[in-house]
Structure formats: C-alpha cells, structure tokens
Amino acid sequence: MKSRNTYNTHTREIAMLDTQHPLRKHAFHFSVINLHFCALLSVMQELHLVRDQFSAEQERASKLEDEVSEIQEQLQKMDALEKEFKLLRGEIDSGSNTAAASTNQPPRGGFWRWNG
Predict the structure, then answer these.
(1) What's the rounded Cα separation, in Å, for the pair 41 and 3?
(2) How far is the C-alpha of 11 from the C-alpha of 96, rounded, in Å?
(3) Which one of 64, 80, 95, 96 has the largest count of C-beta atoms within 10 Å of its C-beta?
(4) What digits encode the pLDDT tens for the residues 15-52?
C-alpha cells in the first residue's frame, strides 16, 4: 500500500506542473511513464513473492497428501490384520472348547492357551 500512496502523491504533484512549455510537457509525460513503470515493477515483485509462497504451499500440501496416503495404507493393513487375528482367535477358541468338552476339562487361558 505504501508504494501506491507514494504513486498517487507523485501523480498529483506532476499533474500540478505547468505543461504548456514543450520541454515541460515531455518531462511530464516522462515522469508519468516513470511512475507507472515503478508501480508496475513493485506489483511484479509482489507477484513473484506470492508465486514463490504459493509454490511452497503446493509442495507442503503435496507432502501432506503423501503422508495421508501412507497412513491410510497402514490403517488398511491394520484392519486386515485385525480381521485375521479375530479369525484365528475364533479358531483357537473353538478348538480349545472342543478339546475341553471332549476331556471334560475347563479351557485353559493365558499363555498356555496359545502355547497349548
């Protein structure tokens, strides 16, 4: 904003110059062109800065998307392992219940249940 305020102030000062004399008229036009060029340069610098920031944010977003994707894959693997674990647990429980029923012994638990 500072550069635009300065630009407006200089434009008003230049507009107040006497432009009747041919040399002053050329000086006036040169000054206006120079101010427009300076304003354009300032805006271009700001544009480059914003583009750099945008590029950095795009890179950051891409990394975060990759991390999310990896976490989703890990969750899917964990879900598959949990389902497999439940199936195996069910098989072991039904096997130990069947063995206990045939020998009339209570099912064993804890470590011995797994190591049987």
Answers:
(1) 10
(2) 94
(3) 96
(4) 555 555 666 777 778 888 989 999 999 999 999 999 99
Q: What is the DSSP string of 11-73?
A: HHHHHTS---SHHHHHHHHHHHHHHHHHHHHHHHHHHHHHHHHHHHHHHHHHHHHHHHHHHHH
* Residues 35 and 14 sit within 8 Å (Cβ to Cβ): yes
On whether the CB atoms of residues 93 and 100 are closer than 8 A, the answer is: no
Class of residue 38 by CB neighbours under 10 A (exposed 0-12, middle 13-18, buried 19+)? middle
What lies within 8 Å, CB to CB, of 24 at 6+ separation is: 17, 18
User: 104 in helix, strand or coil?
Assistant: coil
Given this model, what pLDDT does residue 38 score?
A: 92
54-107 residue pLDDT tens: 999 999 999 999 999 999 999 999 999 999 999 999 888 887 766 666 665 555
